[in-house]
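Extended Data, panel c. Modelled sequence:
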Amino acid sequence: MIFLSQKARHSLKRLFDAILTLFLSILLCGCGTMSPLMQAIEKGDLKTAEDLLNQGASMNAGTLCDPAMPEYESYTALGCAAKNGRTAAVKLLLDKGADINQKWGGYRFGHWNPTPLILASMGGHTDTVKLLLDRGADVNATDSMSGIRALTIAAWSGDNPEIVKLLLDRGANVNEKNSEGTTPLIFAAGKGRPGMVKNLVERGADINAKDATGSTALSMAAYEGHNDVVTILVQAGADVDAAMVALETGANSGKSTAAATKSRQGVKSLEKYAQKGDKVTRSVTAGAVLGEQKTILGENKKDSPRQESIPSPTAVVEKDRSKVAVWDLTPGDIKAAYAQDLTSILVSEISRSGKYEVYSQDNVRTLAGWTAERMTLGCTDTKCLTALGQMDIAKLISGRVGKIGNRYSVSLNLFDTQNARAEKSVSEFGRSEEELIDLVQVAARNLLGITVGVSQAGEKASEKARPSLTSPSAGKTFTDPLTGMKFAFIKGGCFKMGDTFGDGEADEKPVHDACVDDYYLGKYEVTVGEFRKFADATGYRTEAEKGDGCFIHTGEKWERDRMVNWRTPGFSITDMHPVVCISWNDADAFARWMRGQGGKPYRLPTEAEWEYAARNGGEKIKYAWGNGDPSGNIADESVNRKFPKWPVWPGYDDGHVNTAPVGTFRMNGLGLYDLAGNVWEWYSDWYDQNYYQYSPKDNAKGPEKGQYRVLRGGGWDCYPFYLRASVRFRNDPTIQGTNAGFRLGFSAR
């Protein structure tokens, strides 16, 4: 008999456990269970994860990433942590010796074996990608079964320019091809990701590269109907004739009828850019390029949709518009991301006036063919101003946002390009960072002498519904010390709730008396940055992340996309955008977490509280902005540039196809932003079509139970009928979409 020391027995046990774990992982790959180590990581319990590792748990054997999808994915613990964006867990595993470049995996689209870096890039997890690169991950490692690299999957799965920059700065090949000859640019164009396309083109992507079938980035974008990407590629010099040849070949290749039809439609969409035998024409309106978000449109959410007939406000004919270039605002002692968002707000303010055709800095660069280095030099010199004048751009606006002592400032400068001289300057000052949005709006109006987004009649009609822009706070507020979320105090009262204008649906009737006590309501919709704090602190995964993804609109219908969630919604976002792809259950989990941090008794508000606030404290107004022309992010002319048949508010252009940063548009008289438009908001009530027939007068909280939860306010995808203050919508509490988010509130006593 052989006697072993305790240490030797422990070593043998660890070896046996490792072999057994490896055997079971191989046996069960794609249809097994989540390992205890992975369960601890997903719960955010890194102490237990470290204990398991110290006890010999295997890091390099296969484990399921998500028990809800056993038939889909199995990677190593490091691969799963990277894929799910668990950056702290990735660091722990690397510190414990996990193989940073190990390939392992099974996937629902067929087997593949990606590295952790490829998986993190697929998930759009910037911090995780950066950590892996800093720790020596091979930026050009390929999935040996399909030839996919990190940059390729980033281009295919999301529109995250930070990840593209990280990968390219660390040596990723911008023109890499997978086993089918597809480049990152072709992938991004085919998926309709304008931000990604522009980034790749700027970093030297071969704009006319062909895959194994002869398809180019332009032919793929045209085939899929991504007109915004088509415009970008044409302006950047893509070969239109070659793209048309590829599409015509596809149309006659014996493919399915549907594929042949899409090919012919693609050819037709390119005909306006090229004439056979002639050079490509690039007389594309810069306004068509304005904004870099992928267009994923919503549709009316009711069972019996109606479009309200709205008289179009007086509009300026496109050809009579003056052309204005807006340079990116320079940040001074504030975050660069804030300056970017404020630049977007400045562009929106000018666009909504209807008087100007606005060119962003990126638009100008694309049209002029200037280098990125040239753009960083600014454009206040005579040579640059003259060049803009030769492009028929009459004015240039540049500026700076910053902080001087305890005061925040916005300074804008207007240049006359025809005479190459400065024409006018304005400055606005405030005492809080929150005021910067209003300061930009005021400065834009004063600089150009415009009334933004509202006709004179609309201004007068909705005058009561919002305060002066120079008065950024309508009453007392509360700021949560943990998240920085701001809440406005709402003095309670009674009002007429329901279809007060007589043009609503059955569930808005009867009009009845409703009273609410004093309460606080979030000044803004909950943002991506605020939700990220919750997810990072708790390891929480939304129902979209755990399930089959989030609902997006394809241009024809709503359908799930498992690559879409709050982190990667399919269009460009910052931490200041409203979080989307959130179910009612997710929103409630966030509220419960906020309550547990020792702050106020946060909760999802009631729909009575929402309607009272949306009516500016119970006034008889039709929309949250009043009874006149709109001020908000809704279905508008920017949507029609992508989808000409989409029902919109005629003549109104808010400059945003998808979500806009919270607070971009004017607040109402109670100091609240985005009560109409931007995103539908989840509220606490169960939905009952007949609830108004028996609801109590005081502090109605909805039925005791039900199948659906209530949403209010309409989103960026909504036309007038669904933006009314009385409109009620409902959905299953597990469902989420790219047009739905939430805001919080709490009782004042």
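Confidence is low (pLDDT under 50) at residues 1-32, 68-72, 275-319, 451-473. This feature is highlighted in the accompanying rendering.
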